[in-house]
Amino acid sequence: MPEPSNQRDLRLDFFRGVALIFIFVDHIPENIFSYFTLQSVGFYDAAEVFIFISGFTAAIVYGQRLAAKGALYASAQVWRRAWQLYVAHVFLFVIFIAEVSYTVMTFNNPMYNEEMRVGDFLSEPHVAVIKALLLQFQPTFLDILPLYIVMLLIFPAVLIGLRYRPLLVLIPSFLVYLAVQVFGISVPAYPEGNVWYFNPLAWQFLFVLGAVLGHASARGRGFPWFRETTIAVAVAIAFAALVIRLSWTFGGLWEGFPGLLLKELWPVNKNNLSPIRLIPFLAAIVLVAAWVPPQARFLRAAASRPLVLAGQQSLEVFCLGILLSALGHFILSEYERGVAMQVLVNVGGIAGMLFTAKMIDWYKKMDRAPIAQATRTRPLPGDGAVR
Amino acid sequence: MTRQIASRLAPLFLCAALAAGMAAPAINAKTEVAECEVPADLQVVSAGLPRLAAKLRARQPVVIVAIGGASTKGAAAGAPELAYPHRLQVALAHVYPDVPFKVVNKGVPRQSAQQMFERFPSDVFAEDPVLVIWEAGIVDAVRGFEIDDFAGAMQQGIEELKNRAIDIVLMDMQFSRSTATVINFERYLNTLHRVGDLNQVYVFPRFAMMRYWSEQNVFNFDEVAADERAKLAAKVYDCIGRRMAHSLRIGIQ
Question: Alpha helices of chain A — where are they, by DSSP H?
């Protein structure tokens, strides 16, 4: 059950909470707030943070279950979580379909007829629905959940492997990642010609890497690499990446500002988690692990509390964030996209996410509290959640 | 906001004017001019067109190839003469009466940038143009093709054209409010503009222009009867052609 909060690694909750907010902000196109998220200063963005921390926490939480109640129970719990995500995916798909069918049916601009038909949104709904249920149809904001679901489906094997030999898990995972980089293998999606936006064969490496490190940290093993040289290398990489990426952001804002190495490095592939994204991200991980203690004062501050809670209720807050960003995009493109409206949409959405996290936390605490002193020994539903 | 209100009230004033009889033609003429106008920041042309400029100076015949998708073909307006490439030809002929212009329309609906690039030998080089206007990105965005593939196809195409000493103008996507709610154009728009910057090629900001017109309620497809929409599309294509002629004039200076 939940460990006393003074042992909890608040960094995981806090940074995942921040990542969820960034994912919400970045999912609204042409949003001025997205200049203040990771993607405009790093080659990576909140997706890396989210997937890495999810792997890390999954290894800790389900590793405990595995140790206490056996592999079968732990697997069943992981798959139950995958099922919850699947239901959330289908829910989001229904909302997407509502938005698209409304738009297509009321569409009356002949200049876009040809292209809207290319979208195949409603030309064969019977196929589209089945493809969505099979995680094959991943329009706009429905791309990250399928990755997460697949990660959890394979996770029991990772978990069992970690117990015996972590390297036995990490090396094959890395080889698959490498194969994607070398041969450009991708996973086909629907409609034909599309691929999985987050290539699971590439992104699994980040999830597994998180799990391996989470497993190590759960066993109280420090990171063997925290020597001064490692940190120095990480600082160099992180600094170089920051300077280059910032020059691109400024180059996009002001004509004539030189984008460093733009011709050589751009575009940085996100689908396959290009090493240009992965390496600076790993450098950042090293630096956070080295410099931010798990119980750092700012993590315990009252101001950080809402973000920590959001990180703890990640599934619900993530789904709500995706939903709110779709709504925000709709408001901005349909009504008014001035700066004031953008601020309103962003602030409203973030407040909604944080408030929901608070509410769920409150509800779970109430739910867990004993009723009229009656002691309950049975584990409560909902406690199995990753957090 | 106030502009929106003003433009919503405009029909009322128009009705009043019609009732009054006299003033109506004057107001019509005024909206006609305002239709194609865009703010100054959308009229900046970042890269030159040296070969087109040389041809014009020598008063030699100019061949331009407009390659692209459905909006280059212009079927929405009903006739090839109403598509933007022909409107561009008309506009250019008006500005340079002593130079023969030919703008060849090579729009094929539902094609990705890669498919257009593959048409270059037959559709572009065969015409021996001095300038190619390449309109791309809509299908790639609608179908959600990989950004890398899109950027790669554009880059290949630009290099091929540069090797053959052909001037290049890129044209970005069309804007439509209801389309923008279901399709995320932003990444493809940014990619196209960045490819342009990297290669020092001018990108004609059609998306921003059409959005400006939409926000100013210059063209509104929502409040128009079905049979009037083709006429409206023709007007938009005409504006695109005229704006492009204007950009080319700046580009050759």
Answer: 10-26, 46-69, 71-105, 113-118, 125-133, 144-164, 166-183, 200-218, 228-253, 262-265, 275-291, 297-300, 305-312, 314-334, 339-368
